[in-house]
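Task: sequence in, structure out. Protein: Nucleoside-diphosphate-sugar pyrophosphorylase.
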Amino acid sequence: MRINSAMILAAGLGTRMRPITETLPKPLVEVAGKPLIAYSLEALDRIGVTSIVANVHYLAPMLTKWLKDWPGAEIAISDETETLLDSGGGIVKALPQLGPYPFLVLNADTFWLEDPDAGSDNLARMADQFDPAIMDIMMMTARLDQATGHTGAGDFTIDPEGRLARYRGSGDPVIYAGALVLSPHIFDAISEPKFSLNRCFDAAIESGRLFGAPMLGHWLTVGTPAAIGEAEAAMSAYLNGSASSTGHRPNR
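Result:
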């Protein structure tokens, strides 16, 4: 299906990234010469999504100015300066700007490199595969061997039909790779202003309506200053490896 709008979750405090984030919001921390949030915006631009909302909280004026100066789509701001609403509450606050139809949600502080042999971008495939008749949420997932910067055993398991369940120590774990397609009706029964998206994940699992979209490429999360160099080295290795094996580099 056609996805016309997207939310970028950009209101986090970035405390683990100190001292860099003492003067800079985490979405503006640069990796390989580019702010983290720029990777999400470029991914949306590649599939033609131009209606974008980003929430802001920590060092909001700095991030808001950067977003206003972004040369691509015009980005609406959902201001959480007064109260940080967590991942789910932040989306609900922005729903009037996002519209009534399924939309994308991206994390501002994780990103991925596309597989040059895939034929289409990960977000485009998610939009094509999302079926609101049987799905409430489609989540991009990555295997552990596709990830740099992730710590922990994994988040979910995926069955042959694509349905996700929480990883409980058995089966092959996958990581939530920071991108979703979701139907806004999943928030209808929630009245609290502040809550985590994990609540929606669990509800969708219970009803069999949380599906995974295995990503093609390499996923990166950068949680600390020391992890920046690790991410840049992994990016260089992936891009150079892809170029040598295919004759061209993946989109960045």
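The domain at 5-246 is CATH 3.90.550.10 (Spore Coat Polysaccharide Biosynthesis Protein SpsA; Chain A).
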